[in-house]
User: Fold these one by one.
Assistant:
Number 1:
Amino acid sequence: MTFPLPARRLVLSLLTGLALIAAANSVLAVDVFDLAPDRPDLIRTARNPAAIAKIPAGYAFANPGFFTIANTASGGPPLSTYANDAKTVVGADPDIARLIADALGLELKTVVVAWADWPLGLTSGKYDAVISNVGVTEERKEKFDFSTYRQGLHGFFTLKDRGIERIAEPKDIAGLRIIVGAGTNQERILLDWDRLNREAGLAPVELQYFDDEATRLIALRSGRADVIVQPHAQLVYIAARDGDIRRVGTLSAGWPERSDVAVTTRRGSGLAEAVTEALNGAIADGSYARVLERWQLTEEALPESQTNPPGLPKY
């Protein structure tokens, strides 16, 4: 039976709605990570005398006795989200913050802020650092200091049965249909890769854009697209939650260079060197690796923390 056009549109709308409801239910039904606010197995590290010695003389912490950090609580698991008590912030970033506080001999205090508000709050001294998936950029380095703690990665993920095995360089995306966010760094890099492929006589890539995550996943699962590209941590969570997609590659946010995520402190405050020392102590004793393993982010591990390394250039 052939339905008139308005009826076909209604059926398509209903099917899309049902798919969105199913996707939402899968999020609610599956607890991939432990989001309890008071986990008994928190990963800790010991006081680090070398890190404490690098705290500048006379440095005034925002709250005496505490390492006060800002976090947006909006990165989503596994980076940062609210625990199931709807008020405690949990995730890889809060766990990294706790390691730094331990190493500096301080208690951790987390202040939840909007992304747009953290620069002013940091420069005004409302908190000592921002630990909320902040990438190092040359522009930000004009106002802030950085201590790196994760690689800034984007992930290439596809359906488990799609037959795509590896994406590591421009030629690997030739002819593929890839979902990417408009105006993102991922899009900029993929357009560069596509230009290189076209110059080499390879098939062009087809970039697809959707407004929300549920629609992107529907497009991937329905066969409209071959690959989805997003920040790696977001896709790690989706893959663990849903079980039907897998990673086939990663891409540095700073391609062709590496771009890292860092603890952000006030420029010239001197605290960055102490934070970098604290992170390197946690790397050395294994607590850093255990945090990333807990949140399935081992792929993003750094061999060492660095203070103010090269960041993304101004475009």
Number 2:
Amino acid sequence: MADFMADPDLKDRFLNVLKGKAVDKVPALSVTQTGTLELMGKSGAAWPEANFNADKMADLALAAHKFAGLEAVRYPFCLTVLSEAMGCSINQGRRDVQPFPRTRPFAEDAESLELPSDLTDRGRIPLLVDVTSTLRKRVGEEVPLIAGIEGPASLASRLLGTYNFLTWVMKKPELIRRCLEVTGTACSEYSAVLSEAGADAVCIVDGIAGPDMLDPKHLASLIKPEYEHFYRVGKGMKLIHICGNSTSILKMLSECGFNGISIEEKVTDLPAAKKLIGKKVSLIGNLSSSGVLLTGTCEEVKNEAKKCLEGGINILAPGCGIAPRTPLANLRALVDARDEFYNK
């Protein structure tokens, strides 16, 4: 049974938007990380413990919904769960720094990269399954749950090393293709167990695949097939977040089957972006997380949020992971802006 009352329309609105159906107003939420220092204080759950303890992780994840009014519960707060399960040693970070990989286990022997037969029993994957089940019980069926995971390119870059990955994409494409098949399958298997445990959507975050880092032709030939496979495996909604100015690859991403594509503020022409992805894919974003949300006033947040809504955004959200020092008032202003936009 849910342990607090929720708006019964939240989940229906979220799912209907992603299915291309009409809604009374666009959802206001985050598909990227939501842990902030103020929310840590209010929930009594802080990093680094909240990245490794199931109860603390659930408490902090709920805080963004309970105290900021964001209309979904998004978890976890780091992108190291699959990296750890596949062999990376993890630095646990600190109260205002997310965990990050310390090692590149396949940098010297990429040919030996294989999918562990017990992948979903490794590292924190069982913990995240437990967190998913716990959150489902605590919010009931009224609030959408969004699980974030590393994308196949980001996971491969961590296992091989970023320099190796970007270099081998050009010099050893067949090796990278095989590695991406492994990491893509890992993403799909992890996503499937999260969906079975109760996640309504899984969002892969694959920043290194964006055009700021990777030539779109390599995305098309090497990574797109893994995105298409990811979409086909398991149930639930499938989302993707790409960093940087993703305008040049939006059409390609829309062909992979994703229900929603999350974009940064560097994508400045929202009507053009919507035209590129078509009517079957929802556009998510794109308030600047490191800009107006972190350093702006509430009025500035509202003004930028309303510009996103005027541009036709389908889900109003931060354009990237929320910075830990983001004021709680600014997160509330995001939701308030959506309400004011529809009440005008």
Number 3:
Amino acid sequence: MEPPDPDPAPRVTVVLPVHNGAAFLDAAITSILAQTFRDFELICVDDGSTDDTPAILRRHALGDRRVRIITNSPNKGLPGALNTGFAAARGTLHTWTSDDNIARPDMLARLVAALDAAPDASIAYADFSVIDAEGRVTGFQKMGPASDILLGNRIGAAFLYRAEVTRTLGGYDEALFGVEDYDFWLRAARRFDFVKLDEDLYLYRRHEASLTDRRALRIHRLGSHILRRELALEPDRKRRARALVEQGLASRIDARLDMLALGLALSPGLARGRINAILRHLAHHFVRVITRKTG
């Protein structure tokens, strides 16, 4: 009889990409290692860090055999780091977390249970809270139905999906740094079913150094790009028009006036009840243009 595998494949792979994230990294890793669901591996992808990140990763790897470290040199960017991590994944269920966020203790347990209870679904997701740099809760994000994915990222920051999703989609698009997650969900929605948990399972940190804040304009413009791609594939005229109008009004950084105009042209009735919002949107971006020209 062959001896048992001393290190069998885990049920879940958690990827944690990090580039110079020492400020909050320890808390992020600790929140994963403290999960009530224990059958996982944590693949930390050091994406060319030059701060104390490598030392923090080594300390956790020495203290817990579930922690694995992969080092990218040179830096690949977030989607590239994610692809590096998932290429080494052994779990049949995948998720990832950021170096500045915190998973609530039952996050993995609840998401695994959701997929186990819904064998036809491939992706489970949940609500989350927003925290500041000091860890104080400043807001709550109740995620919407996946069927509304064209209206915005309805999946959010707390999720788990089957390895089949990673394989089918070919991972994250490395050209879409900043909206790689939304692009991933949009592509996934064409092929897979989702299940939603009405539970707060994650703490998403907003702070001055976060990618979302530092690269806001580029992120909004990349978001417009992938939305136009998806909307061109939407056969339902009413759904396409609604998504164009909602996304046309969604950004206070990127005007998206062409999307707004096209949506209203497809379905003029969408203007009813939205006139004030449309006028505020136009006025806001008009002021932005004038300010840039005179500033």
Number 4:
Amino acid sequence: MSLVFDSTFAPRYGEAIDIAANVKRITVNNPSPFTFHGTNSYLVGKETLALIDPGPIDDAHHATLLRVIAGRPVSHIFVSHTHRDHSPLATVMKDELGAILVAEGPHRPARALHIGEVNLLDASGDTEFVPDVLVPDDMLIEGDGWALRAIHTPGHTANHVVFALEGTGILFSADHVMAWATSIVAPPDGSMSDYMASLDRLSQRHDRVYFPGHGGPVTKPKTFVRGLKAHRKMRERAIIERVKAGDRTIADMVRVIYRETDPRLHGAAALSVLAHLEDLVDRGLVQTGGNPAIDGVYWI
């Protein structure tokens, strides 16, 4: 199944965009190859609000959120995961607004580091984040005129969770599913086997639209999720083919598989290949000496 990405998105920094009844999107001006045009924050409700993913520490975005909130009470702040482009401002605004901070849990890797391994993603993790409520899978949190259901979707991070707005068909998909690009799955923070299982979980739902952490909406979620899974399976086959062709290192595989990708993303691509190789080694489809590693040697 072909996967078509949609990169048409106008961030309109400093503005709140009405995207559904009582749902507004505000985008942080933090564009990058990894964040697209920036991180999306969402305000849900009319009188008493919920805030989803306040974003990084950014004075202009902080001021915009406060201006749009306009003195209304914010009962809950929901955080999808603890990357620094999503969660740090939540801690500041929790104290400022007297809101309850809701998340799956604190930042943690998907697995323990192997001996001698360095976590290349340390700088991206918000290790200071401490939620007030550790939301279990499938828990419904109700507010004033809204209810958000937590759906655990580990893969991009171990603590990634998406939130479904009950009775609307809307799902806030954060970094798990985005219309503009595939999600980065990078060990040890991420896990490819977890990510694929989370895609399967969402494919069983019947949401009508996803509002992601970056970029515009996913308007045909079931079709798009099937396409994402097919894309990952295609990438898995490409890795197996490169190993069969004699590529022994991740660097060799990236040079061929990602030859048309922005070179600035090759580091992330290497970690994505490692995520696939961890899964392939675990399933006995590829061999390596010891634990799969970014500088390891692989064969079949």
